[in-house]
Amino acid sequence: MSSNILLDVSKVTLTFGGVKALTDVSFSVNKGEVFSIIGPNGAGKTSMLNCISGRYQPNSGSVRFKDQEITRLKPDKRSVLGLGRTFQNLALFGHMSVLDNIMVGRHHLLKNNFATGPLYWFSGTQNEEIKHRAAVEEIIDFLEISHIRKKQAGTLSYGLRKRVELARAIALKPDLILLDEPMAGMNQEEKEDMARFILDLNEEWGMTVVMIEHDMGVVMGISNRVMVLDFGCKIAEGLPEEIMANDHVRKAYLGEEDEMLEQLEASL
């Protein structure tokens, strides 16, 4: 594996019963990239993210991260290695504050545990908590959500909850962050803000990004490379301008009832 490759997926196949969600899909992601995965509904995009994050284990093929085989590794072990993700369906703790939701994302970075907890003033636990809270406050400032830091996550608008979930994923300090439709359900202004945050994470925070997104304008505007899935198979991979001009990609979107084909055509 090249020293510049952070993630390498090789011939991954995933089946549910007799249905193939993914068939021999291979690709790699370089350090520092924004790599987008697109395709019609049901193409296998989220299944691929689940194979990378450890939520699913493929029937065959391999996933390597930082030149380490992680195909059978549990999700929490992948987090420790520097893999973070958000979900298509929000997975926040609605009864907890924004601040506490983000603090949950720091859990695997904690050195102290239940045994040292009672020695709060003597074990370094107090200093550690101060350090982690400072890191969380930095994330809150970065994502411009300081005005909601004490509010319960379940009371927020959908767009703000998506931002809080991104904050929790960032709190893991990942080298690679997986974003599953980070702009779904957002208005245009919210999408523009989220696109800016993703670019800043990539360029200023040094995070490599693998993103599933249906908004073709965003995908083509911020991605270094794009991969297209259709019925669980890879049909194209390349620079945004190459994908926009690819006949196989355009055919894959024919028949879609949503705006994806129109957005793709508008990008040409």
Spell out the CATH superfamily of the largest domain. P-loop containing nucleotide triphosphate hydrolases
Low-confidence stretches: 113-117, 119-123
Q: Biggest sheet, strands in spatial order?
A: 6-7-8-3-9-10
Q: List how many beta strands DSSP finds.
A: 10
Q: Which architecture name of the largest domain does CATH use? A: 3-Layer(aba) Sandwich
Q: Major beta sheet, specifics? A: 6 strands, mixed
State the CATH class of the largest domain: Alpha Beta
Structural class: alpha/beta
Number of domain units: 2
Give the CA-CA distance, first to last residue: 34 Å
Average pLDDT figure: 87
H/E element string? EEEHEEHEHHHEHEHEEHHH
Radius of gyration: 19 Å
- Globular, elongated, flat, extended or rod-shaped: what is the shape? globular
Helical stretch count?
Answer: 10
Helix percent band: 25-40%
Task: Please report which band the strand proportion falls in: under 5%, 5-15%, 15-25%, 25-35%, 35-45% or over 45%.
Answer: 15-25%
Named CATH topology of the largest domain: Rossmann fold
